[in-house]
Specification:
12 helices; about 30% strand; flat; binds adenosine-5'-triphosphate; Actin, Chain A, domain 4; Nucleotidyltransferase, domain 5; 5-stranded mixed sheet; 3 domains
Length: about 350
């Protein structure tokens, strides 16, 4: 519900403050912003030059005085001031000028420390929030993917973002078992850079590596080999060069990070109480997050666990949609917080 105060509006906002992408959900409107979590800054004047997509285009292409920064790493804030400024920009862009301080729900990976949680709350408060609540990413992802988390049924969510993979078993609205690892889409990009450097003596940038991953990257062999030509710098001559990379190269390159993700799923399954494990076996594993779009990951998970793995309908938006839906219960959250129930939120 939007509260009208004079000519200004009080809005409630849900933010998926991701390592790779930030999404903003405004109550009553849905997702209104989806931008890369990147800002470009003039180092001498400390002035913002670009934020979001415009700044992402500058990654790896900036002259000496300009830096393009991703202020979140591995799912948590690594540069506090920049995060605060970026968040402020995204919230203002989402709400327009005529807004009063919004109530904000932000999601965080399930394994974050109290200090990391505090940093998110402070950045959001400084960015103009009236009050900030936190929600754990797997809970938000499950709600966003349409799971009724209040049922006494076990659901397994594997949320693979840019910086973190959160594996969680949820039942009766809470997390029963979980594991958060700092291996996700970004690690896959780094693994590709390393592989291309070793095999082809060629240096490629972050963006080319992500392009390779999205286009021909796979966790399970394709029926038909795929190829992509990629440009980089020859490490021996220092000159530009082109190489044709295959999907088998990608399979090799991604073996390590993908194995770590599968092992995290295994480990959570081993710790899951038998009744809930039986539910998961019947319902399957639900995959969310952009990293879950890696081709063949569902097949691999199915092969390694014996449980079917299914991609959510909107994998990249699930967390933001879930965060947004939880805005519906913000009044309840406020009440429950004063009652001291701060285990799931904040
Ligand atoms: N089609 C695709 N195939 C493989 N990976 C993809 C695809 N589309 C996006 N990704 C990857 O998904 C990742 C970003 O996912 P997402 O937006 O869910 O993460 P995030 O919420 O920003 O990160 P985190 O939750 O770790 O903070 C990036 O590493 C991106 O390269």
């Amino acid at each position: 519900m939007k509260e009208v105060v004079g000519l200004a509006f009080r809005a409630d906002v849900g933010v998926d403050l991701g390592t790779a992408t930030t999404l903003v959900y405004v109550k009553g409107k849905g997702i209104v912003l989806q931008e890369p979590s990147v800002i470009a800054l003039d180092q001498y004047t400390n002035k913002f030059l670009a934020v979001g997509e415009d700044a992402r285009k500058m990654l790896g292409r900036t002259p000496g005085n300009i830096v393009a920064i991703r202020p979140l790493k591995d799912g948590v804030i690594s540069d506090y001031n920049i995060t605060e400024r970026m968040l402020k920009y995204f919230i203002q862009k989402s709400l327009g000028r005529m807004f009063l301080k919004p109530r904000v729900i932000i999601c965080v990976p399930s394994g974050v420390t109290e200090v990391e949680k505090r940093a998110v709350i402070e950045a959001s408060d400084e960015a103009g929030a009236l009050k900030t609540y936190l929600i754990e990413e797997p809970i938000a992802a499950a709600i966003g993917a349409g799971v009724d988390i209040t049922e006494p049924n076990g659901n397994m969510i594997v949320d693979i973002g840019g910086g973190t993979t959160d594996v969680a078993v949820i039942s009766l609205g809470g997390i029963v078992v979980s594991r958060s690892i700092k291996v996700a889409g970004d690690e896959c990009d780094e693994a590709i850079i390393k592989y291309i450097r070793k095999k082809y003596n060629m240096m490629i940038g972050e963006r080319s590596s992500e392009d390779l991953k999205v286009s021909i990257g796979c966790a399970y062999p394709f029926e038909e080999e795929k190829y992509m030509e990629i440009k980089g710098r020859n490490l021996l001559t220092g000159l530009p060069m082109n190489v044709e990379v295959s999907s088998t190269d990608m399979l090799e390159a991604l073996r390590e990070p993908v194995t770590e993700i599968v092992e995290a799923v295994h480990e959570v399954l081993e710790r899951t109480p038998p009744e809930l494990a039986a539910d998961i076996s019947n319902r399957g594993i639900l995959m969310t997050g952009g990293g879950a779009l890696l081709k063949g990951l569902d097949k691999l998970l199915n092969e390694k666990t014996g449980i079917s793995a299914n991609l959510a309908k909107n994998p990249i938006e699930s967390v933001a949609i879930g965060t947004g839906k939880s805005l519906e219960s913000i009044e309840f959250l406020e009440k429950s917080m004063t009652q001291g129930d701060q285990s799931r939120y904040r």
